[in-house]
Amino acid sequence: MVGPVPKFDYAAAKAALYADFPHLFWQRQIPQSSMSYGPAIGPGWYPIIRELCVRITKAIDVEDLTDPKATKWGFAQIKEKYGELRIYGPRDGEGGPIYEAYEWAEEEASKTCEVCGRAGDMQVSSRGWYATTCQPCADENNNSD
Ligand SMILES: [Zn+2]
User: Fold this and answer.
1) This protein's superkingdom (predicted)?
2) Which end of the chain has fewer CB within 10 Å, C or N?
3) How confident is the model at residue 141 (pLDDT cuts 50, 70, 90)?
4) In this structure, which residues have their CB less than 5 angstroms from ion ligand 1?
5) Of 50, 41, 47, whose CA–CA distance to 17 is shortest?
């Protein structure tokens, strides 16, 4: 058995992303934006989003992150839907480094528990909800139904 997942500090996790990657999260300041709540995902996927940001920032290769050449890659929305990680934002062409980073993140999330970050896969709960989780988290979820 695995222990309980430690309580996740969403506010701190979001603040850290905003501080490190202001060029990618500026749309959160637009009240009607889908980014105004930040990434709508579970704790287990936060490391994937961070790595995605690192890869995009490396690909942009601009020193000044307030430069429009950097901010034009800002995310429009990051969320979980039907158990999958969905990232909306500008991508370069297929095969480009930013396109590839998006692809990597969505693929990685499909095998990572959204709750705890361990290896996971798509699960369907007893209530018919789709989620990418590990087995212990899926059991936990079903038990709390
Ligand atoms: Zn899990």
Assistant:
1) Eukaryota
2) N
3) confident
4) 113, 115-116, 118, 134, 137
5) 50
Q: What is the pLDDT of residues 84-124, one digit of tens each?
A: 999 999 999 999 999 999 999 999 999 999 999 999 999 99
Q: How far is CA 116 from CA 70, 82, 98, 120, in A?
A: 31, 18, 26, 9
How many angstroms separate the CA atoms of 50 and 117, rounded?
A: 13
Cα 4 to middle of ligand 1, angstroms: 10
| pLDDT value for 79 | 97
Nearest to residue 21, comparing CAs of 58, 42, 128, 119? 58
CA distances from 66 to 10, 106, 143 (A): 25, 27, 47
The count of other CB atoms within 10 Å of the CB of residue 64 is 9
Q: Which of 83, 81, 79, 80 is nearest to 124 (CA)?
A: 83
**Ligand 1 midpoint to CA 42 (Å):** 10
Q: Indicate the domain borders of the chain.
A: 10-110, 113-145
